[in-house]
Description:
Low-confidence stretches of chain B: 505-523
Order of helices and strands of chain B: HHHHHHHHHHEEHHHHHHHHHHHHHHH
Largest sheet of chain B: 2 strands, antiparallel
CATH architecture of the largest domain in chain A: 3-Layer(aba) Sandwich
CATH superfamily of the largest domain in chain A: Bordetella uptake gene, domain 1
Order of helices and strands of chain A: HEHEHEHEHEHEHEHEHEHEHHEH
Largest sheet of chain A: 10 strands, mixed
Distance between the termini of chain B: 51 Å
Strand content of chain B: under 5%
Mean pLDDT of chain B: 87
Radius of gyration of chain A: 21 Å
Oligomer: heterotrimer
Radius of gyration of chain B: 23 Å
CATH topology of the largest domain in chain A: D-Maltodextrin-Binding Protein, domain 2
Number of helices of chain B: 25
Shape of chain A: elongated
Mean pLDDT of chain A: 89
Distance between the termini of chain A: 60 Å
Low-confidence stretches of chain A: 1-9, 19-29
Number of domains of chain A: 2
Shape of chain B: globular
Strand content of chain A: 15-25%
Structural class of chain A: alpha/beta
Structural class of chain B: mainly alpha
Largest interface: B-C, 76 and 87 residues
Number of strands of chain B: 2
Amino acid sequence: MAGVLGAAIALVGCSPVSEVAEPGETAAASTFPDKDIRLIIQANPGGGSDLSSRALASELEKILGVSVIPENMPGASGALAMEFVAQQPADGYVIGFGPSEIAMLNTTQNANVLPENYDLLGQIMLAPGVISVGADSPYETLQDLIDASKDSALTVANSGAGSIWEAATLGLAEETGAQFTTVAYDGGATAVAAAASGEAVAAVSGAGEALAQKGAVRVLAVLNDETYFNLPDVPTAEEAIGTAAVYGGWGGIYAPAGLPDDVHSILEDAIAQAVETDTYQAFQKQSGNMVVYRDSAEFTDFVNEQFTLFQKLLG
Amino acid sequence: MNALTDGIASLLDIQVLIGMIMGLGLGFLVGAFPGITATMAVALASGFTLTLEPVQGLAVLLTIYVAANFGDRVPAILVNTPGTPASIATTLDGYPMAKQGRAGLALTISAIVSAIGILASLVVFAAAAIPIATIARDYFKSPELFALVVFGLTVMISISSKSILKGVLAGLFGLALGTVGVFPATGDQRLTFGSLDLWEGFNFIAVIIGLFGIAELFDQLLTHHKSKIRPISSLGRWWPNKAELKQIRRPLGVSGLVGLGVGLIPAAGGDIAGLIGWDRAKRISKHPEEFGKGSIEGITASDTASSATLGGSLTTTMALGVPGDSVMAIMIGSMMIWGIAPGPDLFTRRPDLVVSITGIMLIATVLSLGLSLVRMKGMVKLLDLPHHYLWSAILIFCIIGTYATTNSLYTVGTMMVFGVIGVLMKRTGFPAGPVVLGLLLGPLAEENLARTLTILPTKPFIDVISPITIALLLLSLLSLVLPIIRRHRQARAERSTTLAEALLDRDAAQARTPDDAPSASKK
Amino acid sequence: MSHQNDVVPPGAVPALPDADDAPTPSGGHDAAQPSRKLEIIAASVAVVVMTTFLVLVLQIDLRREADAGQMDARFWPTVLGGLGLTIALWRLIVALTQTPDERDDLERLQVGGVTRLLASLALVVGYMAIWELRTFVMFGYNFNLFVFITPLLLLGLLLIYGARSWKALVFFPLVSTAFIYLLFGMLLRIPL
């Protein structure tokens, strides 16, 4: 009977108003969550952010016992969604998927997106960066490439000015003294294709994009602190040139700043559990991403570090 | 041989069939619904197909891709509203045909040539995907793409039906609109006025629905009167006769090649191909003056070209691992999760899958053609609805469809503003086509030029600016200059003979120019 | 009508058409008449639009100056603006000196047409303003505004467009709204 009634109510587009907790009253919060949670995705359906978020959402639903409804809010490189979430009440019912842009958009575009606007709940994935050259390129190792760039600057393709991969290129150049001229393309795949066709000498992209064009490009190094499972023979930057260079497209879950402590820890634990599930792990592996988990405290430190780094590289 | 039988055998599965039927219905529906694109439908469906077997999932997604390419022609022809951007050029001749009471014929021809376009492009995919895609990548780099885009921009001359100046101004307006947003080469914000909504520029779908669909609706609101006799849609033939079938051969061949070529280029899709194909067919046609006024050749050209991009995009995607268009970008994501990453080794490692993909596309095309031909009568009947239903339905569907692209009312506002701009342009004789062309191609031109200039100092000049680039730029110059000279001469000749009379008696001058459908009166 | 671009308040529109597009007594011909005034106004608007664009473009802030031989964010729009202004001025000269373009592909404006258009626009703008509120609370329930205002919008549009039959005014709005809500809200899960 209740089900029929519920369905009928849903059909005319209404839902019960949840009881709003009095300020300072913790009893209501301890029942968290007692209604649907909105998970705001900063990109269009079908992309990497969207798929990762949806995979996590279906695990979170099982753990939290309420619906976690993914909602796409594309626009302004994600700033639209991030500013939207920051303005929502800090009750845990609106959370978002935050990619590396959350630490960049303030620097690159002056957006009102600052780490302190958010309760960062945990990192859930990492798409490690790689540097690759065309299959018929004379450069066999990253060291060859860097040495050659010291005579005259080499072109390095990336997915656009102010992107994580431009930052990675600039960072690598700074740490090694290489001279790289960044060339902006309209996406990671086309940037890698430019290296494959010889238009640019090299490309810095996500591992997945380079992997998709395996055969046409040679991956010189993984810009991470551990080997990438899909390319076990490719050295990390540190193994290749002795200088650590760690850049990647990471993603995590965030909420508006100032969540009540118990809501914060319920969400943090749920995310930690969801990331551990076999389905989620298998999904990310198939997508070519690594599952790198950081808890709320570690993730907050990490985002702040990245924020400073991007300010230095892209500011 | 083994791969061939394996690939076909994997299609003989009831689940594949069910998937295709679902994809067919969904694709047709979203295609016909203005605003919702195949990209969006495939993205949403990919959430459900991930749990299926790869071949079953591909059957659903590829069928949506194909069917949407048929469904989107329906609103373009019937109400001047492109269902998806790929059918922008369809409105150029399809809608005039419908206004002349030849909607049935327009839909039939559109469906047939779309099917031919897809099937022809599939042959290329099946026969020589890897070499062709590799050639496209290695010989069409940023400088060549810049030249190609410039060449595409010259199309605005031929879609300016009357005044070239007005057409070029409209085109520059579109190009100017295209500069709004963050410039990807430097990350600078341009003309965003601090609004987050403008970062990524104007929403393309909202602009085209506004300029075409809403503007046409507004124009009808302005000009409708009760006693007006509407063309009765049930009159008129459905099936092209022999002479018409012969007429479509030339545009079919030319625009098919255009579509295939454009499809191979990752950044360009059916929208651009349709416009370029239409332009090329017009330039070689014996009756270029009929283009834009309900020409069978025109609708053949636009729809063959935009449909032929499907095979081209598929080729680039599967052979190189570079998404050929936005639908394919999503498809790559799904395929990776199924563990069948596209790329050159797909053809060596899983040739059976290549056969299956070709088979699915082929069957989907045939099914879509069948459904189009069967459903057509019902579709055209929609035009016989009393105008108050038709207008209200167009307006609300455009609003909802546009809203669904971003889940934001801002996009709906964009559509309404461009509807107003569109009707003002229409009343003053400024064509909408060049605006769309400029908005589509402007960012491509600028970004490719910026890349070319970045690369230029690092390499010898001739390695960057290839003979292909130079040839294309020369061709663009010719395309730009020749029609202007020709029109200028024509106008001068005409003016010297008719100016005096025209000024004396405007009505008489008007009576001499048949105001409607020369092709219709001919038959 | 139609010499204005979007910056002009829509209220100013109806004043103009009468002069240019007024129904001709001759009848028979339903095509719009050529009008020099219309061409001049349209060309002037184009000049204003292109000038505004050029001025705005020249004020774009650059994060970094481009190196020699490289493109900055101002280069391309400046070229477009300059070209656009040139052609708009050219067009203005043409409009002033030559016979106005034929408009036989356009139909003539009809009495009440402008009112019909403005009423539809006003209705849609009002609809969007209310929709933006998303939900309202009554009897302890959150109601989705969309499902209530959409039939009202359709009802209003039907009335403007001349539908008078009782059945049309009730059924069409309800059935359309139900269809949209089921397809978009429930099936595609779009937050309406």
